[in-house]
Design brief:
About 15% of the residues lie in helices and about 20% in strands. The protein is built from 9 helices and 40 strands. The C terminus is likely disordered.
């Protein structure tokens, strides 16, 4: 018996020893990571070889290290196979990775997550072999400078749940019939993909049964005049069809009202919808964020909006809406009084006095600029403790503003009361309970042909005037927005500007010919727009310019030369097929001719003339003399009148501190390069 017990005990010990790793793993006592697979490590190294890494994003990818510890790489804890490859580098100041994707990517057969967005693949086609990664769930190819045709083979990725193809340079697809094959798709973003030839786009996306987020902004969508008979896509939470040419005669609204009543966020701004805002929006009971900006809606704001209790954002700017503000606010407060946070009604024809808005205690931003409001601002405004932005300018408001109007506005960041008849009567020893990041107190003078760049503040009957405040502006970053139109020529009057970034927008027209007046400019990025014409020769006068990116536009002619311009390589100009001259390999006809700016410094200003400009006119001298007078309403006025520029400008202000860090990072990289050379 004793021998049997001893034998049993020894057997048990052996079993425990054999099971030790399993038990330890079960109890979480050891690391289950076994190190990456050698063939996958070699595949990643081949991928690195085909990429030009300007900022050291892949510096951790070393042949003597475990690839599961590399930046952007994640392995499975159970199998050690690579399951995630994230090369998104949106935090870098410029596109960090260039080159091409190596076919060795298909060796990563267990990959479920692939993100190569915000890089530069030189307008090459999306590699077809990506469609072989059958386990992919998440695929982000946005803003990666892909071009040519979108491979229909992407439809083979049947497990895909997330697909982003936005902000690239694809050819106009004839059809998108491959999309319904992605039967598991939940998120689809194809913003800026030109779908003008796809007349059945709505019928196609309607076949995606699990789709919850659809972004088709700036796609030049054709109007649809028949509602899809088969409705599968009834789970949409987010729908963005902004910046298209959709009209009220289209069936899009009918489809939305009848089949997508679960939408939480709906963006239809910058289309061509006309007439009254349909009451049918009330069918979407879950609606919390509605953007109808820059359409042609008219009449009063629907009363049914007052019965919708989930409002967070209501944005109706830039229409022809009228009616009494008081009636609308009282109606809105019936149900959404504790939910509404962002209310944008500027650039309409809304009338009446400003009501007591304490009935909307959660309100954070209020935009009523450029309406037909009159009367005084109630002192109860000072009780809205959550208010961050108050924009009431360009109305017929009058009366006295005192400390009481600001008593509890501890979160206030932006205050804009320009072009009103309001008078500030503030005690000289008053300490504001807030710290403003932006203020607008200017006014329009009697002559409408000119404007003043100044603000007036009154303390107990004494006026304090602040002039040329725009001269303090050092950096503008409005990149990756949806800005349209031409670059305002008056922007060159901001002669204190050090950094200007308008990249990745929809800007058209020419680069301002007097860009050389920005003599303090160190960084200029106008890439990924639709700018045309020649590069102004005056740019060669900016001797402080150390970072330049004009790539991926429609610029033409010879690249100007200069001591500073000659330091930039071809990357700064690529993607402009009609450009020629150094540093591009394409030579210009008559290479010996040069673009030399003519500079006249006799009047104390740099007068710049290009060959095509002709004689310098008196108007140019006057514009230079006026200086900031023109710049205020040329730049800021553009933002006031253009919703997209204005919204982006304040977004820039909010992110200014982050951009300072980015600029510092650029300087450090530049210094490191100089030390290496």
């Amino acid at each position: 018996m004793g021998g049997s017990s001893l034998q049993f005990l020894l057997t048990l010990i052996l079993l425990l020893l054999c099971m030790k790793p399993t038990i330890a793993n079960f109890l979480g006592l050891v690391d289950t990571h076994l190190g990456c697979k050698e063939h996958e490590r070699q595949a990643l190294l081949k991928i690195k070889q085909d990429l030009i890494d300007d900022y050291g994003l892949l510096s951790s990818w070393s042949s003597d290290q475990d690839c599961c510890t590399w930046s952007g790489v994640k392995c499975s804890n159970q199998t050690s196979h690579v399951i995630m490859l994230n090369l998104n580098a949106s935090s870098f100041p410029s596109l960090p990775l260039r080159g091409k994707l190596n076919p060795s990517l298909i060796e990563l057969k267990y990959l479920t997550y692939l993100d190569v967005s915000n890089n530069d693949f030189n307008c090459s086609q999306i590699p077809v072999f990506i469609a072989s990664l059958s386990n992919l769930i998440h695929l982000d190819l946005s803003n990666a400078n892909f071009g040519r045709n979108i491979p229909f083979q992407l439809g083979n990725l049947s497990n895909l749940q997330y697909l982003d193809l936005s902000w690239n340079y694809f050819n106009k697809p004839e059809n998108i019939e491959w999309l319904p094959q992605l039967s598991s798709l939940k998120f689809l973003e194809m913003g800026t993909v030109n779908l003008s030839k796809v007349n059945n786009w709505l019928h196609v996306v309607n076949k995606l049964p699990y789709l919850t987020s659809l972004f088709l902004y700036s796609c030049d969508l054709p109007n649809i005049f028949s509602v899809p008979l088969v409705n599968s896509s009834t789970c949409l939470d987010v729908l963005d069809l902004s910046y298209n040419n959709l009209t009220s005669s289209s069936s899009v609204l009918e489809w939305m009202f009848n089949s997508n009543t679960s939408v939480v966020e709906l963006n239809l701004n910058n289309n061509q919808f006309q007439g009254l805002i349909p009451d049918a929006f009330s069918r979407i009971n879950s609606l919390a964020h509605l953007y109808l900006d820059s359409n042609e809606f008219e009449g009063e704001i629907p009363k049914v909006f007052g019965g919708m209790c989930n409002w967070k954002t209501l944005s109706l700017s830039g229409n022809y809406l009228n009616g009494q503000l008081l009636d609308f606010i009282h109606n809105l407060a019936r149900c959404a009084n504790h939910s509404i946070e962002f209310l944008y009604l500027d650039h309409n024809q809304i009338m009446g006095s400003l009501p007591d808005l304490t009935t909307l205690p959660s309100l954070r931003e209020l935009w009523l600029y450029k309406n037909r409001l009159n009367g005084t601002i109630p002192e109860s405004k000072g009780k809205q403790s959550n208010l961050e932005t108050l924009y009431l300018g360009d109305n017929s408001l009058k009366g006295v503003i005192s400390e009481v109007h600001f008593s509890k506005l501890t979160k206030l960041k932006y205050l804009y009361l320009s072009n009103t008849l309001l008078v500030f009567n503030i005690n000289s020893n008053w300490v504001p309970p807030f710290q403003l990041e932006g203020i607008g107190l200017g006014f329009l003078p009697t002559r409408s042909s000119s404007y003043d760049d100044h603000a007036i503040w009154m303390y107990k009957g004494r006026e304090y005037e602040y002039k040329s405040i725009l001269g303090l502006l050092k950096s503008i970053d409005l990149s990756s927005n949806k800005l349209t139109g031409a670059i305002p020529s008056e922007i060159v009057e901001l002669n204190g500007l050090i950094s200007l970034n308008l990249s990745r927008n929809l800007l058209i027209g020419k680069i301002p010919s007097e860009i050389g007046l920005l003599r303090s400019l160190e960084a200029l990025d106008l890439s990924k727009n639709q700018l045309c014409g020649v590069i102004p020769s005056s740019i060669s006068l900016i001797n402080s310019l150390s970072s330049l990116n004009l790539s991926n536009n429609n610029l033409s002619g010879k690249i100007p030369t200069g001591s500073q311009l000659n330091t930039f390589n071809a990357i700064a100009y690529e993607g402009n097929p009609n450009l020629c001259g150094f540093p591009l390999p394409k030579k210009c006809s008559g290479e010996d001719t040069t673009q030399n700016p003519v500079v006249n410094t006799g009047s104390g200003h740099a007068i710049i003339q290009e060959e095509e400009d002709g004689f310098v006119t008196l108007g140019f001298y006057v514009s230079v003399t006026l200086g900031f007078v023109v710049s205020f309403w040329g730049v800021v006025g553009t933002m006031v009148l253009n919703w997209s520029w204005r919204f982006s400008y304040f977004k820039f202000l909010n992110n200014f501190k982050d951009k300072l860090y980015v600029i510092g990072a650029v300087i450090m990289v530049r210094l490191q390069r100089q030390l290496q050379t």
